[in-house]
Amino acid sequence: MPNVSNAPALRLTDIRKEFSGLVAIENCSLAIEAGEIVALVGDNGAGKSTLVKIIAGVHPPTAGTIEFAGKTVQPTTDANRNDVEVVYQDLALADQQPVYMNLFLGREKIKRPLGLLDRRGMIDEAQALVSQLDVRIPSVTATIRDLSGGQRQGVAIARAFHWAKRIVLLDEPTAALGVAETARVEEIIKTLRTQNLAILIISHSLDQVFRLADRICVLRRGSQVGIRRTAETDKNEIVSMITGLA
Q1: Which domain holds residue 17?
Q2: How far apart are CA 110 and CA 45, in angstroms?
Q3: 3-state secondary structure the chain
Q4: Domain containing residue 225: CATH number
Q5: Average pLDDT along the chain
Q6: CA dist list (Å): 116 to 55, 119, 120, 173, 211
């Protein structure tokens, strides 16, 4: 039996993914500790989103292993059970529903034995959650469509935080936001680190990567080029790794 007590929250070993014979990811190995933020960077088509979907259980790897806290899993069946939560670029929020219903989407609290929605319980829990993460919204009863882009992103991250036990995956969490809203969302992401979650973030903004990440994993054309500690590298080296131009 492996010693799981000191194992990283997530470990990928020699991950490979093929689609109809085309290789999208190959030879990717990465470990992320609890309380650590790792950035996944690379040009369009480098394989970043594919790797996130493999970890989340959307796509099974063609080869390689995935471990959560030292336990090997079959991601298409075990990912949700191990509470890997993903914030995709489209956020997957229900625009016509209030914030509190989005936080419990598909996991609604039910009053027993009547089987009615426990709206008061969800509202109270949602309010405690947004207060804990300092997500600045008018109210947890506000409708999603009435919120700004940054507020919606905050709700999506709060939902991931609420249900994730070990790992949160963020796919371009601030791509469509302005400067002020980006700064607000980055503060929320930093709060996740203090809750001992492992965080993998995809970002095209190297400024953001260097503000948030402890380490940077670079992909190029589906291959892992290397991993660097943020404090021991600079933007020029990362750009060279991304482009393949020394």
Answers
A1: 10-243
A2: 43
A3: CCCCCCCCCEEEEEEEEEECCEEEEEEEEEEECCCCEEEEECCCCCCHHHHHHHHHCCCCCCEEEEEECCEEECHHHHCCCCCEEEECCCCCCCCCCEHHHHHCCCCCCEECCCCEECHHHHHHHHHHHHHHHCCCCCCCCCEHHHCCHHHHHHHHHHHHHHHCCCEEEEECCCCCCCHHHHHHHHHHHHHHHHCCCEEEEECCCHHHHHHHCCEEEEEECCEEEEEEEHHHCCHHHHHHHHHCCC
A4: 3.40.50.300
A5: 90
A6: 34, 9, 11, 34, 45
pLDDT value of position 80:
57
Q: Which two tokens stand for residue 19?
A: 């689609």
Q: Please give the Cα distance from 114 to 128 (Å, whole number).
A: 26
Which residues face 11 on adjacent strands? Answer: 31, 67
Tell me what pLDDT residue 75 has: 63
Alpha-carbon span 28 to 159, nearest angstrom: 28
Domain assignment present for residue 172? The answer is: yes
Summarised one tens digit per residue, pLDDT across range 226-239 is 999 999 999 999 99
**Residues 103-159 pLDDT 10s:** 999 899 999 888 899 999 999 999 999 999 999 999 999 999 999 999 999 999 999
In a domain, 1, yes or no: no
β-pair type (198-202, 37-41): parallel
Contact partners, residue 222, CB within 8 Å, separation at least 6 = 23, 24, 25, 26, 46, 47
**How many domains does the chain contain in total?**
1
Tell whether 196 is covered by a domain: yes
